[in-house]
DNA sequence: AACGCGGGGAT
DNA sequence: ATCCCAGCGTT
C-alpha cells in the first residue's frame, strides 16, 4: 500500500463534511481558503456561511464597500485578508468578467493569494497537479519521513512541496491535497497524537524512532511587545459618542476605535484625566471622568499584548461628529472593543 | 530572511 | 503559559 493510497483511504472514511468541499466553483473555494489562513475550521465556518449568504457571487462581494466587508469579517482577525479579498473580488469582477484565473501561476498574481492558496484553488477547482504545503503538510511529512528541516526556513517550503509532488497521484491531486491536510488536522495533530490507532503506525519514521513529539522542527519564536491603550468613551448630553478610523499602518488597519491615548505604562486616573483635559477638551466641557475597568483588559495578539482601559468621559452640550449607539454598532471594530460595546457600554 | 499581522482553541 | 491554526505582504 502506497502512502497516498493509504492516506486517501483514511480520508474517505474520516473526512468532515465541509460546505466548501461540495463544489468546484472557485469563488466559494477561494473564500474558504482566505478565511482559513492561520485559522481553524471551527472559527472560520460561521464567517464562510455569512459571506456566501450576503455575497453569493464574486460580483456581490465586488459591489460592497470595504467597510461592509470588514464588518462581516469582524472578529476573524488578520484584517488585511478582508481588504485583499475585497480588492481581488473587484479585480475579478471588473477586469476578468467574474472568471477566476484558471491556473496556479495566474492565481498567484492575485492579492492575498500566495503559494498555498493558489495550489489549493488550482487543485480543488481545476484538478491541477500542484501540492499544497501548509502547517498540516509540514507536520505529516516531517514525521512520516523523519525530516528535521527547520520549517521556518525559507527553503523548507520547496523541499516539502517537492516531496508532496512526488507522493501525490497525478490523476487526482485534489483528493490528495484534501486528505493530507485533513489527516494533519484530525489524526497527526501537533500535541499528543494518538499514534496507536494511526493507519501509518507501522511505517511512520518518527513513531519508530520515538520522536513524534519533536517534529516538525520549527525555530523562530517571536517576541511580544506590550502596549497600553486608554480609550475615551465620550458621552455627551445627547448620549452620543465619538469613534475614529485607524488609518495608519499596523494593527486593525481601517477598523474603528474610540479616541485613543497610548501610554508607555499603566497610567492612573490623574494622569489620564490631565491628558484628556489638555489634549481633548481644553475648554472645560468635562462633567466627569470615570474608569470603566479598574484592571486593564489584557488583549493578547500573537505579537502584541495590549493593556486596555476604557475611560467614560461625560461632557456638556453636543459633541461634533457624535454618533448614537445604534449607528455605532454598524461600524467594524476590533473584537476587544466590540465586546466592550456589547457588554459594558 | 525576518517581521508584522488576530483571535481563539487545545494542552 | 505556550503552541499553533488550509499564510501572505512588506521590508
| CATH superfamily caption of the largest domain | Hypothetical protein, domain 2
Radius of gyration: 25 Å
How does the overall form come out from the CA principal axes?
elongated
- Percent helix, as a range, is 40-55%
Number of strands: 7
N-to-C SSE series? HHHHHHHHHHHHEEEEHEEEHH
Described by its quaternary structure, the protein is single chain
Number of domains: 2
For the record, the CATH class of the largest domain is Mainly Alpha
Calculate the terminal CA-CA distance, rounded to whole Å: 61 Å
Low-confidence stretches: none
What would CATH call the architecture of the largest domain? Answer: Orthogonal Bundle
Beta-strand percent range: 5-15%
**Number of contiguous helices:** 15
CATH third-level topology of the largest domain: Endonuclease III, domain 1
Average pLDDT, to the nearest integer? 96
Main structural class: alpha+beta
Describe this structure in words.
- Strands 1, 4, 5, 6 and 7 form a five-stranded mixed beta sheet that branches. Strands 2-3 form a two-stranded antiparallel sheet.
- The longest helix is centred in the N-terminal third of the chain and has 16 residues, at 80-95.
- The relative contact order is 0.10.
- The radius of gyration is 25 Å and the shape is elongated.
- By secondary structure, it is α+β, with helices and mostly antiparallel strands.
- It has helices spanning 3-14, 26-35, 41-54, 58-63, 66-73, 80-95, 104-107, 115-126, 135-144, 156-167, 173-186, 205-208, 269-279, 325-328, 335-343, and strands at residues 225-235, 244-245, 256-257, 260-263, 286-291, 297-300, 304-315.
- It folds into two domains: 3-214, Endonuclease III, domain 1; 225-343, Nucleoside Triphosphate Pyrophosphohydrolase, CATH 3.90.79.
- It contains 15 helices and seven strands.
- The mean pLDDT is 96.
- The structure holds a DNA duplex (11 and 11 nucleotides).
Amino acid at each position: 500500500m502506497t502512502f497516498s493510497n493509504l492516506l486517501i483511504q483514511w480520508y474517505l472514511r474520516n473526512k468532515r463534511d465541509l460546505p466548501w468541499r461540495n463544489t468546484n466553483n472557485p469563488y466559494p473555494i477561494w473564500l474558504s481558503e482566505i478565511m482559513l489562513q492561520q485559522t481553524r475550521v471551527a472559527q472560520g465556518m460561521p464567517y464562510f456561511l455569512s459571506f456566501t449568504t450576503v455575497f453569493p457571487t464574486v460580483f456581490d462581494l465586488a459591489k460592497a464597500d470595504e467597510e461592509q466587508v470588514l464588518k462581516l469579517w469582524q472578529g476573524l482577525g488578520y484584517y488585511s485578508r478582508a481588504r485583499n479579498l475585497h480588492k481581488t473580488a473587484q479585480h475579478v469582477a471588473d477586469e476578468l468578467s467574474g472568471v477566476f484565473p484558471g491556473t496556479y501561476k495566474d492565481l498567484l498574481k492575485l492579492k492575498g493569494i500566495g503559494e498555498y492558496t493558489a495550489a489549493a484553488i488550482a487543485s480543488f477547482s481545476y484538478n491541477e497537479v500542484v501540492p499544497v504545503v501548509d502547517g498540516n503538510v509540514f507536520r505529516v511529512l516531517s514525521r512520516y519521513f523523519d525530516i528535521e528541516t527547520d520549517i521556518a526556513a525559507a527553503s523548507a517550503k520547496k523541499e516539502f512541496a517537492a516531496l508532496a509532488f512526488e507522493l501525490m497521484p497525478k490523476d487526482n491531486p485534489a483528493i490528495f491535497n484534501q486528505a493530507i491536510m485533513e489527516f494533519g488536522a484530525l489524526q497527526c495533530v501537533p500535541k499528543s497524537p494518538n499514534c496507536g490507532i494511526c493507519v501509518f503506525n507501522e511505517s511512520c519514521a518518527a513513531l519508530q524512532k520515538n520522536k513524534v513529539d519533536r517534529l516538525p522542527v520549527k525555530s523562530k519564536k517571536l517576541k511580544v511587545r506590550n502596549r497600553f491603550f486608554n480609550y475615551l468613551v465620550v458621552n455627551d448630553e445627547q448620549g452620543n459618542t465619538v469613534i475614529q478610523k485607524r488609518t495608519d499602518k499596523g494593527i486593525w488597519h481601517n477598523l474603528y476605535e474610540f479616541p485613543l491615548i497610548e501610554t508607555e505604562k499603566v497610567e492612573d486616573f490623574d494622569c489620564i484625566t490631565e491628558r484628556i483635559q489638555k489634549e481633548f477638551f481644553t475648554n472645560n466641557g468635562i462633567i466627569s471622568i470615570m474608569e470603566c475597568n479598574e484592571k486593564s483588559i489584557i488583549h493578547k495578539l500573537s505579537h502584541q499584548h495590549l493593556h486596555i482601559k476604557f475611560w467614560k468621559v461625560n461632557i456638556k452640550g453636543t459633541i461634533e461628529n457624535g454618533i448614537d449607539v445604534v449607528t455605532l454598532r454598524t461600524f467594524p471594530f476590533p473584537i476587544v472593543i466590540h465586546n466592550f460595546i456589547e457588554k459594558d457600554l
